[in-house]
């Protein structure tokens, strides 16, 4: 199964839709609740990062029998120092963004934490791509 969501920078009304969509879909197809929760967290942080930090992006989610692949690609300013951005509490979010309750600097570290595989690539002035994989627990009887 394949799901795709477009995310517009600065659109905090729509952000959260991809996470809600993946959570609903995974529940409908009977995916383990803990896996669904982790996938929703990763997706939510990915779409928030596009909304907060980039101009335009896409979240695509592939649900395979043994894994869920969450891919976020954006056009945006990119990240100059990825190791710094991965640190808990590191954020370049503006005061306005923080007043809305975002910009705690936990998004990327939590995406890595809740994924089984996590990769981030970025080019300054071009954009950022994040790929997260969540492995599904083996089904009983397999
Ligand atoms: N898609 C992105 N485009 C540009 N910069 C990003 C993106 N995602 C994350 N960053 C940079 O990495 C920092 C840390 O991200 P994150 O851990 O999600 O914290 P937060 O979003 O709360 O600032 C951000 O403040 C920003 O500088
Ligand atoms: Mg974030």
How would you describe what is shown here?
It contains 5 helices and 5 strands; from the N terminus they run E-H-H-E-E-H-H-H-E-E. Strand 4 and strand 5 form a beta hairpin. The chain has one domain: Histidine kinase-like ATPase, C-terminal domain (Heat Shock Protein 90), CATH 3.30.565. The chain is 35% helix and 28% strand. With 142 residues, the chain is of the alpha+beta class. It is globular and about 50 Å long. The chain has a 5-stranded antiparallel β-sheet, covered by helices on one side. Adenosine-5'-diphosphate binds next to helix 2 and helix 5.
The secondary-structure element order is EHHEEHHHEE
Placed side by side, the strands forming the largest sheet appear as 1-2-3-5-4
Terminal CA distance reads 21 Å
Unreliable stretches covering 5 or more consecutive residues? none
- The radius of gyration over CA amounts to 15 Å
Shape: globular
Q: What helical percentage do the residues reach? A: 25-40%
Strand content: 25-35%
Write the layout of secondary structure elements.
Blueprint: E1 2-8, H1 17-28, H2 33-53, E2 56-63, E3 67-75, H3 82-85, H4 95-99, H5 107-113, E4 117-123, E5 127-135
Antiparallel strand pairs: 1-2, 2-3, 3-5, 4-5
Helix pairs in contact: 1-2, 2-5
Bound molecules: adenosine-5'-diphosphate and magnesium ion.
Magnesium ion (MG) binds at residues 45, 48-49, 107.
Structural features:
142 residues; Heat Shock Protein 90; five-stranded antiparallel sheet; 5 strands; 28% strand; globular; binds magnesium ion
What is the structure about, briefly put?
The chain has 142 residues and is an alpha+beta fold. It is built from five helices and five strands; from the N terminus they run βααββαααββ.
